[in-house]
Fold each of these.
Amino acid sequence: MHRYPLAKGTVVIRGGAVLTPAGLVDADVVIVDGLVTAVESNVTAPEGATVLDAEGCITGPGFVDLHTHLREPGKEQAETIASGARAAALGGYTAVVAMPNTSPCLDSAFVVRAVLDLGATTTTEVAVAGAITVGRAGEQLAPIAELAALGVQLFTDDGTGVQHGGVARRALDYCTGLGVTYAEHCEDLAIASGGVVHEGAWSAKLGLPGQPASAEEAMVARDLLLAGELGARIHLLHLSTVGSVELVRAAKAKGIAVTAEAAPHHFTLTDAEIASYDARFKVNPPLRPDEHVAAIIEGLCDGTIDAIATDHAPHTPETKDLPFDEAPPGMLGLETAFSLAYERLVEAAGMRVERLFDLLSTNPARIAELDAAGARPYGHTAHGARVAPGIPANLVVVDPSARWTVAGTALASLATNTPYEGRSMHGSVRHTILRGEPVVISGEAQR
Ligand code: DOR
C-alpha cells in the first residue's frame, strides 16, 4: 500500500555540512524522485532542479517526535492533524507519533484508521500511538492486537498512565507477545493527589497544590520491575526527575530493555516560572527545580535518556486563560524544540551535534519503528538515517547561527500556548524535505 508516495523531481541542497554515516562532511545533497542519490561537493544542479541554500547550515535526518498531541478527533479548535503537521514540518519533523488521548480516544481500529488517513497527505508523516486500555480508563485492555495489525507500534494511556499494576503487567506481557512497545506516562495519581505543580518551595509559597517527584518515580520503578521480570520492552514518556533518571540508568545497566524520552520544557524551564500564576507554565509532569533540570540534561548527554520528545500539547486560549489550578496542563513544543535543544544542549552543555540528531531523529525513529529496520506502520517511509545515497529524502536543514523571537500567534499551530513567548532563540529550521518534497523552504511552509 503506497500511502506515502515519493515526490517526483530533483532537489539540490547546496552548501553547509551534512550529517553522513561517517559524521559531518561539507557537501551538497542531491535528491531525485524522493531518494537521496548523492552526497558530494560542488554538484552542478541539473536544469529544472529546485536548489535549496544551506550555506552555514547542517543537513541531517528529519526529526521524529514520539509525543505529539494532534487533538483530532475531538478538539479541532486547539489543533487539527493538518495544522499540527504543518507545525511539525516547520519544526523540522518529518514524522510524528500522535498521542491517543483524543475524543474519542485511539482505542479502536476505526478511529486509528481515520487518523492515519487524515495524516496520509499532510506535511509530516503521522504515525499513531494506540491506547492501552479501553477509553484510557485503565481497566480493560484495548484491542491491542487489532491495532498492531494496522501497524500501530506504540501503546500508551498517556495523560494519566496505567494506575493498576496488574493491568499494566498484563498489557506489558501482551505487547511483548505482539512485538509492540508499551509506553508509560509515569504518574501515580494516588501519590500525585491532585497536585498541579511540583511539590516544593514554590508550591508552598504560591499556595498551589503540589505533586511530589515520587508520584512519577514510583511508577517508573514499578514499570522497570515489571519489564525486567517479563523481559518486556518499555518506553517511558516525558521523564522529569532526578530519581527517574537514576532508576532508568540503573535499569539499563542491568540490561532491562527500557528507552526513555524527555521534553524540552523539562530541560529549559524550572518551577520558578509558576510564580507568574500563568497557566502557560502548567504541564504534566510539572516543571521542576534546578536539580531535576540538571539531571535531565545529564541523562540526555550520557545516553540514559534516548530521545527528545516535544509533548506538543495545544490548548485553546479559553481553557489556558482559566485560573492555574483549573487550566489544562500542556504547552506547545513542535516549533521550538530544535532551537531549545540546540541552545541548551549543544551551546550550553557542549553536546555534539551528532548526538543531538540521535536524540531528535535516529533514536525516536528506532523506538517508533519508523526507521529502515522497523515495521514502519501503514506504509510510512524510513526516517532517522544519516544522509547517504539510497535513503528516502526525509531531511531537515538547520541553521545554528539564526536568531528568532517566539510569538505564539506566529506559530503554525492553531493554539498559542507557548511558554517561550517573547523569548529570543538560537538556531532555527531552514528547510524540511519530506519524501523529496521541500515542505518548508527558508522557514516558510509551502502548503
Ligand atoms: O501536560 C500534558 N498535557 N501532559 C500530558 O500528559 C497530557 C497533555 C495533554 O494532552 O494536554
Note: The chain has two domains: 10-58+388-445, 62-379.
Amino acid sequence: MKKQTLLSGIAPSGRLTLGNYLGAIRNWVARQDQYKCFFPLVDLHAVTVRQDPTTFADRCRDFVALYLACGVNPQTSVVFAQSHVAEHCELAWILQCYTQVGELNRMTQYKDKSRRNKGDMNAGLFSYPVLMAADIVLYKADLVPVGEDQRQHLELTRDVAGRFNGLFGDVFPIPEAYIPDSGARVMSLQDPTKKMSKSDTVAANVIALLDDPTDVARKIKRCVTDSGNEIVVREDKPGVSNLLNILAAVTETTTAALENEYVGQGYGRLKSDVADAVIALLEPIQARFSDLRSDELALDAMLAAGALEAGKTARRTVQEVHGALGFIPKSSRVGPRA
Ligand code: ATP
Ligand code: LTN
C-alpha cells in the first residue's frame, strides 16, 4: 500500500527549544518510517521578522543539523530549504486568492505578533498562514505534526484546501494535525502562563536544544514555581504544572503518574529530576549536532538533493493546480514566435 505523506516545518528564527522538540520534531521522528516525509526548513517564513543576513545562513544550517541530530533521517525523509523550491510561493499566491481577509484577521498568532511588531506590520506577517497552507498542500500532506499553537493554522489550511476542492475537484487531501498528548505546549520558565518561544530574547525563559548542561540545570533550578508545596497539575499552579508536563513528556509517562510519585516531595527534588531528565535527553543530540554541523558541504549537498526531490512533487502539484484553474498548459515544444 502507498504510504501517506507527512510534512512539518519550523521557521529558522531564534534558537530551537525544548518546546520545538517536544511539540514537533520528536513527533516527526517517531513517524518517519510509517509515512513519506517532507521536512522543509521554512526560511521564507522567518523573514516575516527581520533577520541579520550575515548570520542567517549559519542559523539555517544549525537548524538543519539539529533536525538530523534529533533523529530525522535524510536517507528516507526529504529535508530541504523552502526557499530552494519556488513552487511554495507560486502556490501561496494562488491560495491567497481563495482565502478571505476576514479569516486571516482571526488568526491569534497574527494578532499577537502584530501587537509585538508595531514598528513592522508587514503584509507577510498577515498572509503567513497561507504560505504555510501552501507548504502543506504542495506535497498533498495527510498528516502535519505540530504543537498546540499551530492548531488554528491547520484549521485554516483545511478550510482553504476544502474550498479549493469544492470549486475545482479533489485536488488536495484534507490534512490532519497531529498534536501530541504531552509536550504540545511547553511554557516559559520565568512566566509559565506564556508559551516557551524560540525568539524569546530572555535566555532564562527558554531551554535551547544547544544549551550546555550547567545552563539547563541553572535555568530549571531558578524557574518560577508557585506558592504552596503540592506537586500537581492545576490552573493556579502554572509553574509546577509546566515542570510536570516537561518531565512527563521527556520521560514518556503521564502527569497523573508523576503526581502520585511526588506526593510529599518538595519542589527542589522535582526541579533536580526535571534537570537530569532534560540533560540526559539533550546530551546525545548535542554530540550528534557537533559532528553534523562541522561538515557544511555535506549539509548543503543534502539540502540540494532534498530540493531536487521536493521540487519534482511540487512541480507536479502546481501543474495540476494550473490545469484545474484553466491556465494555458506550458507547451514542451518551443517554436518560432507567431
Ligand atoms: P517564534 O518564537 O519564532 O514564533 P516558536 O518557538 O513559537 O517560534 P514556531 O516556529 O512557531 O516556534 O513553531 C515550530 C514548531 O514547534 C510548531 O510545530 C510549534 O507548534 C512547535 N512549538 C513551538 N513552541 C512550542 C512550545 N512551547 N511547546 C510545544 N510546541 C511548540
Ligand atoms: N507556521 C509554523 C511553521 C510552518 C509549518 C509549515 C508547520 C511553516 N510551514 C508547514 C507545519 C507545516 C510555525 O510553527 N510557526
Note: The pocket of adenosine-5'-triphosphate (ligand 1) is lined by residues 10-11, 13-14, 17, 19-20, 22-24, 146-147, 149-150, 184-186, 195-199 (CB under 6 Å).
